[in-house]
Amino acid sequence: MPPEEGGTASLVEVFSSVQGEGPEVGRTTVFVRFGGCDLRCRWCDSPGTWRPVEEARFETAPGSGAFEPLANPVDVDVLAERIDAFAPTPRAWISLTGGEPLLQPEAIERLARALVSRGRRVYLETHGLHADALARCVDAIDLVSMDWKLASDVQPGPGVARPPGLDFHDAHQRFLRVATRAGAVYVKAVLTPSTRDDELDAMLERIAGVSTEVPLVLQPVTPTGGVSAMPGAGRLLECLARAEAVLEDVRLIPQTHPIYGVL
Ligand code: SF4
């Protein structure tokens, strides 16, 4: 008998830690990392999620850093039950992340609904390009954290076509329109020394075209992978002022989890 739609998921790992980015920074969060990504960001800190893996891992106790193996594909209903039992506090966020979780839309839809039915708060961390996939599950998502990828630092993954001359802006704007139907949404843009004013302006114009009230987090890059330095303080303040001239809720927030060295 073929597997039920959305009945299984391909994961990399499940663990409990602290949200290190964005407006919910510092809150206890269970991270459910899905395997596979169709982009290649120069600063990516989780290249181990780019391709599906045969065997995922599940932390044995929240925050222990010890793991036990979990064979892929994982039964989504069993996974929801296990995450619910594992989450250390009733208010802990459950972050569906990756890789790119919306490459597995049926599994995300089924898992998000199963978690919500157990009273859990679901946080979706996505590169923000697959609007049709989001539309399937958006009503079950409490908070969408969508990246706004800038072409100076991000390329499609191997075998993924992008028409010449087309940046990510159109796809992001379409995605954002769908994401406004979730409980809440914010946009995150990573700033590097390569970030150009013209691409920042194009992003700001597209976000404002949906709503000037959409929160925007400007995140100075954490030097990693192909990026060796963050922009200087003057440049960061310049980007902040540029964004505040267009949008009503802009914050400059670096990643915090690398400071104390958790996953
Ligand atoms: S979208 Fe996320 S997982 Fe994929 S390459 Fe970029 S940062 Fe890494």
Describe what this molecule looks like in 3D:
By secondary structure, the protein is an alpha/beta fold. It has a domain of 182 residues: Aldolase class I (TIM Barrel, Alpha-Beta Barrel). The protein contains seven helices and 14 strands. The strands form three sheets. It has a ten-stranded mixed beta sheet, with helices on one face. Helix 6 links the parallel strand 13 and strand 14. It starts with 7 loop residues before the first strand and ends with a helix. The relative contact order is 0.16. The mean pLDDT is 94. Bound molecules: iron/sulfur cluster.
Instruction: Tell me the strand order in the biggest sheet.
Output: 6-5-2-3-8-9-10-12-13-14
Number of helices: 7
Known CATH architecture of the domain at 8-189: Alpha-Beta Barrel
Shape type: globular
Poorly predicted runs of 5 or more residues: none
Distance between the termini: 39 Å
Kindly state the mean pLDDT as a whole number?
94
Instruction: Sketch the topology as an H/E string, one letter per element.
Output: EEEEEEEHEHEHEEHEHEHEH
Identify the CATH class of the domain at 8-189: Alpha Beta
Which ligands, by name, code or SMILES, are bound? iron/sulfur cluster
What is the fold-level CATH name, i.e. the topology of the domain at 8-189? TIM Barrel
CATH superfamily of the domain at 8-189: Aldolase class I
